[in-house]
Amino acid sequence: SMKNQETMQLSNKFSILNTLFFALAAFMQQGVDFIPRSISGRLVAGVWWYFSMILVSSYTANLAAFLTVKRMVTPIESVEDLARQTEIKYGVVRGGSTQTFFEKSDVKLFQRMWTYMQQRDDVFVASNEEGISKVRKSKEYAFLLESTKNEYTNERSPCDTMKIGSNLDSKGYGIATPVGSELREAINIAILEMSEDGTLNNLKKKWWYDRSECHSDTTKVC
């Protein structure tokens, strides 16, 4: 009869191959020319359609967020990268030795960075402590300071700062004495001897790194 023939056609349509094709088409949000006729079949199809919609929507949202973040975040791995971008501000201690370095530099890159800082009064701080605090609070600020203080800070709790790139300049610290002091020669000789026999390096290793409060990678720019 006509009814039996129709039933046979429906059963033939939903073979294993066609069922897999129907599931794939629903997952890819494409239509097919046959749908379940029974209540149980329609229920299963509805659940699958709902599941596919949620899965595809979640994937699309996560992919869009990932691509947006990846496009917005510019990795800063050197002073050149820092000077090239505008999202992360950078500054120095007002009137400090680092400011003097930028003011008197003949390097075009550093001259351009100094011009940038002069045009933005809010990037200057009164002390190293204020600069480090500004890095931690703003999350969009890089503080340029002496490497010795930088490295010491990075080894101290809460371990949320890090040094980016290599040093901009090479200079050392000295011990001041009155003009003509008899101590000057003795201090010079003692410092040279301590430098040659490794005492100064050992002291820095002891107080900077051996007593470090940080034992994992850090995350902020300093």
UniProtKB/TrEMBL annotation:
Chief location of this protein within or outside the cell: membrane
InterPro entries per the UniProt record, alphabetical: Ionotropic_Glu_rcpt, Iontro_rcpt_C
Keyword rRNA processing attached: no
Signal peptide interval: none
GO terms under cellular component: postsynaptic membrane
Keywords: Cell membrane, Glycoprotein, Ion channel, Ion transport, Ligand-gated ion channel, Membrane, Postsynaptic cell membrane, Receptor, Signal, Synapse, Transmembrane, Transmembrane helix, Transport
Domain of life assignment: Eukaryota
Membrane topology of the entry: Multi-pass membrane protein
Regions that span the bilayer: 47-69
GO MF terms, alphabetically ordered: ligand-gated monoatomic ion channel activity
Stored Pfam families: Lig_chan
Residue ranges of domain Ionotropic glutamate receptor C-terminal in the record: 7-210
Protein localization: Postsynaptic cell membrane
Protein name (record): Ionotropic glutamate receptor C-terminal domain-containing protein
The keyword Cell inner membrane appears for this protein: no
